Amino acid sequence: MIAFLRLLKSMKKRAIAIIPSPVPPLYRFLDRKGDLLVYRKKYDPLIAGADALFILDSSTNDRLGPIYEVARRSGVRRVCIDHHPGNTVEAETKFVEIGACSTAQLIYELYIACGREIGRDAAVALYTGIHTDTVSFNFLGTTARTHEIVADLLRRGVDPKEAWLRMYGNDSPRVLKLAGVTLEGLRTAAGGRIAWVVIRESQWRRRRINPSETESITRYPLTLRGVGVIALFCEEGKRQVRVSLRALDSTDVGEIARALGGGGHSTSAGVRLNEPLPKVVRRIIKALMRGKP
C-alpha cells in the first residue's frame, strides 16, 4: 500500500491509504510518514467521494471490513490488484496474477510500466513484501524474475541487512521465551510429515505479548527433518483460534484454509475459527492428514 500510494502521488493524484486494522508492530517501520490511516467511520465520505478504490492483496470482500461496504453502497469504481488464487473480490477492474510471487511484485511492475522512479521508501516496502511472501526468496512463485526485481530494489537503496533485522531481528525476550514453551508442546503425526504447536491465550497474555507477534514462531517447526506441513494454533479467545498453515510438500494449505473461510496460497495460508481450541486442532489435523478439506 505504501509503495502504491507513492506511485499514485508521483502521478500527481490525490490519494489516501486506509487499512481495516492497525499495522502490526513488526511492520510499523515501513510507515515512517504515518500515511496508513486505520479505518474510522469519519473516513466514509472520503471513500464514497473517491474516483476509485484500489484493493490490494485481498482475495475476498470481507478482508476489507467496512471499507468495502462503504465503497459498494456509494458506487465507487473498484480496482483489485492481487496474486491469490480463487480471488472473489467484486470489482469492475481486476489485475490478478497468481503466477506473481506477491502483490508487491505487481506494484513494482506497475512502476516500470508507468515509467515512474521508485524512491527508497517504496523500494523498502516492495522488498519487504516480496521477502515475506516468498519466505526469504524460497517459496511461493520465486523465479529468476523475483531475484531480478530484488536486485533492482537493492540498487535503489534497500539495505538487505537492515531489512532483515527489521523483519526478523525484532523478537523480544518475551516472544522467544514463549516460543520455547510452545515448542515443548510440539506434536507430530503421519510419521513426522505433519507437525503442529499450540499457543493458549493465557500464555501470551501472561507475557504481555501481542498475539500477532506469535506468527514468527511458525518458522521453527519448518526446520524439522522430514516435515511436510506445519500448523500453529493461537487461541485468541474462548472460542476464537487463529490458525497459520505452511507447506513444504504438495499439500495445498490454501485450499484447506479457503474451505474453512480463510485464505492464502498453496504453501502459506491461514484462517480464524470461532470454535473451542481442541475442536479446531482436531479439525485441522484431520484435514492435513487427508491433504484436503
Entry summary:
37% of the residues lie in helices and 19% in strands.
Number of strands: 11
Distance between the termini: 32 Å
Class inferred from helices and paired strands: alpha/beta
CATH class division of the largest domain = Alpha Beta
The residue fraction in helices comes out at: 25-40%
Outline type: globular
Q: What string gives the helices and strands in order? A: HEEHEHEEHHHHHEEHEEHEEH
Counting DSSP H or I runs of 4 or more residues, the number of helices is 11
In the CATH classification, which architecture of the largest domain applies? Alpha-Beta Complex
Question: Over the alpha carbons, how many angstroms does the gyration radius reach?
Answer: 19 Å
Count of structural domains: 2
Mean pLDDT: 93
Percentage of residues in strands: 15-25%
Could you name the CATH topology of the largest domain?
A: inorganic pyrophosphatase (n-terminal core)
Low-confidence stretches: none
Spatial sequence of strands, sheet with the most strands:
6-7-8-9-11-10
Full CATH superfamily name of the largest domain: inorganic pyrophosphatase (n-terminal core)
Report the major sheet: 6 strands, mixed
Give an account of the 3D structure.
This protein is α/β, with parallel strands linked by helices. It folds into two domains: 167 residues, Alpha-Beta Complex (inorganic pyrophosphatase (n-terminal core)), CATH 3.90.1640; 118 residues, Diaminopimelate Epimerase, Chain A, domain 1 (Roll), CATH 3.10.310. Helices cover 37% and strands 19% of the residues. The protein has eleven helices and eleven strands. A six-stranded mixed sheet has the order 6-7-8-9-11-10, sandwiched between helices. Strands 3-4-5 form a three-stranded parallel sheet. Helix 3 links the parallel strand 3 and strand 4. Helix 1 runs antiparallel to helix 5, helix 4 runs antiparallel to helix 5 and helix 5 packs antiparallel against helix 6. 34% of the residues are buried. The mean pLDDT is 93.
